[in-house]
Write a structure and sequence with these properties.
Helix content: 10-25%
Number of strands: 8
Radius of gyration: 40 Å
Shape: elongated
Distance between the termini: 113 Å
Strand content: 15-25%
């Protein structure tokens, strides 16, 4: 197991599953902060109410380590405190060169396209749709009641046949007379008053 590099300086602790009263009550927040100010007077706090977490920043790694060792899984307001060190990355100088670096984000625009396309990008032309003119011609020649075999059947497969139905709308229109729309009568005007 590799040893912890003390150059990382673990000065930040994350408190998880903190009681919600710490975020709503000033008195409870002062009690919570007092637990950690015993170890370092310059401790700062960042409250994350929606995550129920608090980030606690110490001035020295020794104070952070003592607070973590002594307060981890202790009771506070009926709940156990869960404290974890947070590793803060300051820049590229801290990265160990023995590990493989992540690849450069060259084709990142394919995952989430930017507002404008990258330099050199051009839109591809859409292909011409394939139209089966033989099928269109055969369907156009069919009349009502006729059939057209699309696929001839064999001993092991059925045949596919299109039957053109007779139009019901033509028969219905001839049998039923067209209804006339009666025009709505215009309302009478207001009564005239004679003097």
């Amino acid at each position: 197991m590799p040893s912890i590099n003390m150059k990382l300086e673990m000065v930040t602790i994350i408190a998880c599953e903190v009681d919600t009263e710490v975020f709503t009550s000033d008195k409870m927040q002062e009690r919570f902060e007092a637990l950690f100010r015993i170890y370092d007077k310059q401790t700062t706090f960042q409250m994350f109410k929606s995550f129920r977490r608090v980030r606690i920043n110490f001035s020295t790694p020794e104070a952070a380590a003592r607070a973590r060792i002594e307060l981890h899984e202790t009771e506070f307001n009926g709940k156990k405190l869960k404290l974890y060190f947070a590793q803060v990355q300051n820049g590229d100088e801290d990265i160990d060169k023995s590990y493989l670096a992540p690849p450069q984000p060259v084709k990142q625009f394919l995952i989430s396209p930017p507002a404008s396309p990258p330099v050199g990008w051009s839109q591809s032309e859409d292909a011409t749709p394939v139209i089966n003119y033989d099928l269109l011609c055969a369907v156009a020649k069919l009349g009502p009641g006729e059939k057209y075999e699309l696929h001839a059947g064999t001993e092991s497969t059925p045949s596919v046949v299109v039957h053109v139905c007779e139009s019901e709308t033509e028969d219905d229109e001839a049998a039923r007379p067209k209804q006339q729309i009666v025009q709505t009568r215009r309302p009478d005007g207001p009564p005239k008053v004679f003097n």
